[in-house]
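Homework help thread (please don't just give me the answer)

Our assignment gives two proteins as sequence + structure token strings and asks us to describe the second one. The first is just a warm-up. Here they are:
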Amino acid sequence: MEKQQRKGDKMMLTKPHRIVDKKLIKSMSNQPCLKCGKPTIGWPHHIIPVGAGGPDIPENLAPLNCSDAHHQKAHENKITRDELFALKADEMGKPIEVIEDVVHRARRFYEYEPN
């Protein structure tokens, strides 16, 4: 639940703190691109963005930082969220509905606290 805090004459909503699973994110770095299979560098892409409550769980993380700029294309919506979920489902060998359900449940029910 968001809390309110006073800033001057305005009431501001504070964002909940999120648990960042740095170990998981690091373990998913430098994996083959989910879209093309080429080598990647750097952090994986969050299918549901962090700013929208996207959790740090394998079902929501997609390695896309390849030489074909698939990470940037995902941010430009040239690769849709539905397509990313389908690719992730194929990679994990699970139905797309299961992947989406896991991510949306985690997004809804994770308790975000400071590290």
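The one we have to describe:
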Amino acid sequence: MVLKKHTFQHKYAYDGYYYKATFPITLAYAIIGHKSQGATISSKVIIDVKEAFALGFTYVMLSRVTNRKNLKIIGNLIPNDFIPCTFEK
């Protein structure tokens, strides 16, 4: 992602102009997949599926988001990402 600088020209109350340059960035937060378990996330989310290291973990990360429009997935999903984990008794 490339951030482009925005430059604005403003006029002083008296003679002259000044220029202000800004970068369009937004405050963001990050949590790990384990921390998201049991959470309901309604804000925008970026999920890096390459970081899902355990069976069923991709499902856990994806199922926390309440609205699909707020979800951005980085990486490729494969069928093996959705194999449920089984526990032997």
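TA reply:
I won't write it for you, but here's a hint about the kind of observation we're looking for: The beta strands are 6-11, 17-22, 45-48, 71-74.
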